[in-house]
Automatic annotation (TrEMBL):
It holds the Pfam family ABC2_membrane. It comes from the Eukaryota. It comes from Eleusine coracana subsp. coracana. The keyword Transmembrane helix applies. It is found in: Membrane. GO terms for molecular function: ABC-type transporter activity. Keywords: Membrane, Transmembrane, Transmembrane helix, Transport. The gene is ga09930. The lineage of its organism: Eukaryota, Viridiplantae, Streptophyta, Embryophyta, Tracheophyta. This is ABC-2 type transporter transmembrane domain-containing protein. It is a multi-pass membrane protein.
Length: 157
C-alpha cells in the first residue's frame, strides 16, 4: 500500500518524511481539538470553536497569505497555527533542491520557489517542522490535563 500511495502522489521528496509529517499533523490537530473540548461546556460550542480556529489557522498558515505579508498584530496566529508547520514542511520536502520547474523567461528552481514563499531552504529545517508539531501536541495535551484537573466541574467524590 505504501508503494502504491507513493507512486500515486508522485512525490519528489522523501516519502518517509511525508508519512511522519502526516502523523505529526494529525497528532497536533487532535490534541488541539481535545483541549478545546475540555474548555467548552457542550459539543455544539466545541464544534463551532474548532471550526472557527481551524479557519483562522488555515488563513494564517501561509497558504492564503505569505508569512511576511501577515500584519504584525496577527503574527502570533501564524506561530500557533497547527497548519503552518505541515504546510511549510511538506513544501520543503517537495521543492527543496535545484530541480528546474521552468526555463522561460528565467530558470526557476525549487529553492527559488521556496525563497519566494519566504520558506527556509536549509537542509535540516524540515525536520524542525515535525518537532514543532510534536511540541504543540504535547503543549495542548498539557493544557487539556490542566483544564480537567483544575477547572472541571466533574470532580470525583
Amino acid at each position: 500500500m505504501l508503494i502504491t500511495t507513493g507512486d500515486a502522489l508522485r512525490l519528489h521528496g522523501q516519502f518517509l518524511y511525508f508519512l511522519v509529517m502526516l502523523y505529526a499533523s494529525l497528532l497536533s490537530t487532535n490534541s488541539f481539538v481535545v483541549f478545546v473540548s475540555s474548555v467548552v461546556p457542550n459539543f455544539i460550542l466545541g464544534y463551532a470553536a474548532v471550526i472557527a480556529f481551524t479557519a483562522l489557522f488555515f488563513l494564517f498558515c501561509g497558504y492564503f497569505l505569505n508569512s511576511h505579508s501577515i500584519p504584525v498584530a496577527w503574527k502570533w496566529m501564524n506561530t500557533v497555527s497547527t497548519m503552518k508547520y505541515p504546510y511549510e514542511g511538506l513544501l520543503m520536502n517537495e521543492f527543496r533542491g535545484t530541480r528546474v520547474f521552468s526555463r522561460e523567461p528565467i530558470t526557476l528552481t525549487g529553492d527559488d520557489i521556496l525563497q519566494q514563499l519566504a520558506i527556509s531552504v536549509k537542509d535540516n529545517q524540515k525536520w524542525w517542522m515535525v518537532l514543532y508539531l510534536l511540541g504543540w501536541a504535547v503543549f495542548y495535551r498539557i493544557l487539556f490535563y490542566l483544564v480537567l484537573r483544575f477547572a472541571s466541574k466533574n470532580k470525583r467524590k
